[in-house]
Amino acid sequence: MIIAETGGDMSAFPSAKHLASWAGMCPGNDESAGKRRSGKTRKGSKWLSQTLVECAKTANRSKNTYLAAQYARLRARRGTNKATIAVCHLILTAVWHMLQTGETYTDPGGDFFARRDPERTRKRLVTQLRRLGYTVTLQEEPVAA
């Protein structure tokens, strides 16, 4: 469906951002005098947006994938609908890169964010345990040779 709507030829879009903007899958940025107003997305192809939303909601329910992890992170801060549109944007960006380079998609995995910044994950989990009333003592596990 994505190829049917975009034509499959990505030379019409200089970057993935151009494709996302054309499809209406990126937030607006209406700001004046330091006040942020509507961040509503533009209207794009209704078939493309329906397909992307369906793909995003399916990806959100998948286990141990990058898209599901990203959705969970964003949903906690921004809400369900904004997180879904953000995942749509990620999918569209990945499709642009795949069609542009001819490479296949390799999923970074559901633990991507924990691997990217393990110190941040450690601090978050220790804080969470302390809030639950536990005393936390951390000890490095010896590395097996």
Characterization of this structure:
The structure is a single chain. By secondary structure, this protein is an all-alpha fold. It has one domain. Helix content is 57%, strand content 3%. It has seven helices and two strands; from the N terminus they run ααββααααα. A two-stranded antiparallel sheet has the order 1-2. Helix 2 packs across helix 5 and helix 4 runs antiparallel to helix 5. It is globular, with a radius of gyration of 19 Å. The mean pLDDT is 86.
Q: What is the CA-CA span between the terminal residues?
A: 50 Å
Q: How big a fraction of the residues is strand?
A: under 5%
Shape: globular
Q: What order do the SSEs take from the amino end to the carboxyl end, as H and E?
A: HHEEHHHHH
**Which parts are unreliable, with pLDDT below 50 for 5 consecutive residues or more?**
none
Query: Helix coverage percent of residues?
Result: 55-70%
- Nearest-angstrom radius of gyration? 19 Å
Number of beta strands: 2
- Total count of domains: 1
Strand order of the largest sheet: 1-2
